[in-house]
Amino acid sequence: MTVMHPFDAAIDLTHIAPGQTLGRTDPQWANMVGPFGGITAATLLRAIEHHPDRQGQPLAMTVNFLAPLSDGEFVIRTRTPRTNRTNQHWLAELSQRDTTMTTASAVFARRRDAWSTTEVCPPVVLNPDDVAPGLIAESLPWVHHYDMRFVTGPMPTNEQEAQASSTTTLWIRHRQHRPLDFAALTALCDVFYPRVYLRLGQFVPAGTISLTVYVHADEHDLAVTGDGFVLATARAQRFSHGYFDQTAQIWNRAGTLLATTHQIVYYKT
Amino acid sequence: MTVMHPFDAAIDLTHIAPGQTLGRTDPQWANMVGPFGGITAATLLRAIEHHPDRQGQPLAMTVNFLAPLSDGEFVIRTRTPRTNRTNQHWLAELSQRDTTMTTASAVFARRRDAWSTTEVCPPVVLNPDDVAPGLIAESLPWVHHYDMRFVTGPMPTNEQEAQASSTTTLWIRHRQHRPLDFAALTALCDVFYPRVYLRLGQFVPAGTISLTVYVHADEHDLAVTGDGFVLATARAQRFSHGYFDQTAQIWNRAGTLLATTHQIVYYKT
User: Fold this and answer.
1) Which residues sit opposite A205 in a β-bridge?
2) In chain A, at which residue ranges do the beta strands (DSSP E only) sit?
3) CA angle B183, B188, B193 (to 5 degrees)
4) Is residue A72 within 8 Å of residue A25, measured between CB atoms?
5) Cβ–Cβ of A87/B235 closer than 8 Å?
């Protein structure tokens, strides 16, 4: 008997009809309200990855969180309104009891030989072995699946720890080692706690409304990354009357930019 | 008789059924192939703005360009799978002859009193009056609707003008003055020519696949901006085997960050 990795168990889906799969929330990956958004995003990506019509690899995905999932089963419906020569467009909808809870659009693509370069640089940081492990909040089940090493901007515990910059940078990998794939990379794009906590030094109600992931990594980049730590860095640009944006990068230890990712988050103060 | 502003004429829609509107491509706003993507994005936003069920103002929008529009009519279908207390989720699909050409998701929201701040700074630049007008390419109809003043990173005309940075910063406003609204701000998010041109100093086939806009401006910010110049700045992070990302900011002259915007673009070399 093979025991599935907890990440794979959480995003596991059962085919029920053409373009329809059945999944189930996993209490191990629960967040404050509903599951960790990264797991939901990864599950939607997986539903498309496993569709028999899928061509190419993930390039872009936007996930809109309409409402927190309830514990239990959900159905994901996927369809591909357009297949071009080198890219394919997907739409997905996750529902519970016929109510839409999450929607997504995605682009899958074939990469080609082309002039390539990375223009931005990774933050200069200590090695993960030289950084103490840290957690976002002990009480959140999902955070225990990751080994997090905060280089800057750990979760503040009081107002004295409020920072003038919303930047958090951390090394992260699955606590139970697992090679990085596109689904796991997608989940990593949502591992940052809300930037408003860091600016205010306190917890306030906040949640991601829409998440966009741009995948720069190809399968070679993922293979090089393996199950090693990746460096994740995020910051906000503007906090405006109840909504802020977050922009982030995910790097591997070889200095390859695996993904850039953005989200818009609501908050109350 | 009132003559419509060319921007309003281009995004004008006719109600044909609940959640269905009819539009028509405008040759004045043509790009290389099909219309300027910013006009298509603005038209999709307008279809939602004018829907009788719409609540609140635009907060986030992702537009996926499946295929270039043909000249002529199109139909936009909009639906709102979820209305929450302070935000509302929308899905839109633009089709021609029953073929989906463009899809979009959007979030509209009501802004609230909340702690607010802008963490990033605008680029330090000359005033627009001190910068010479420039164009992206004379042959593109849509560019003539804007007054563009390139501060850095104008369109290169040969390989000697290739740059080590993909950053373009420009002042821009409608050539025929028009107060900024959410639709016009959305269009401005797509005014940058492909970053790969600037790195290579040459034109190569390239096009936006997916565009995301986060609106930070409220109606007060728009009113302050009026019909004045805004400062738009964009750069790429990674060019990877045929696809690069672009991340950008739109500021007004008062130093207010109106929008942050991201896109993924295909290119061939």
Assistant:
1) none
2) 14-17, 20-24, 57-65, 73-83, 87-96, 99-109, 117-118, 146-152, 168-174, 206-215, 230-240, 243-252, 257-267
3) 145
4) yes
5) no
- Give the closest of B87, B196, B249 to A266, CB-based: B87
ipTM at complex level: 0.98
Tokens of A258: 């695996």
Listed in sequence order, the residues at least 6 apart from A151 whose beta carbon sits closer than 8 Å to its beta carbon are A123, A125, A126, A131, A169, A170, A171, A231
Query: What CA–CA distance (Å, rounded) separates A213 from B264?
Result: 10
CB pairs under 8 A between A and B: 203
SS3 B52: coil
- E strands in chain B: 14-17, 20-24, 57-65, 73-83, 87-96, 99-109, 117-118, 146-152, 168-174, 206-215, 230-240, 243-252, 257-267
- pLDDT at residue number B150: 97
Q: How many CB atoms lie within 10 A of CB A97?
A: 10
Instruction: Identify which of B115, B214, B268 has the shortest CB distance to residue A245.
Output: B214
Pull the structure tokens for residue B114.
Answer: 């909340």
Q: Which residue shows structure tokens 């794979």?
A: A8
Q: Do A82 and B93 touch (CB under 8 A)?
A: no
Query: pLDDT per residue over B89-146, tens digit each?
Result: 999 999 999 999 999 999 999 999 999 999 999 999 999 999 999 988 889 999 999 9
Q: Could you read off the pLDDT of A191-207 as tens digits, one per residue?
A: 999 999 999 999 999 99
Partner-chain contact A247 B245, CB within 8 Å: no
Dist CA A30 CA A226 (whole Å): 26
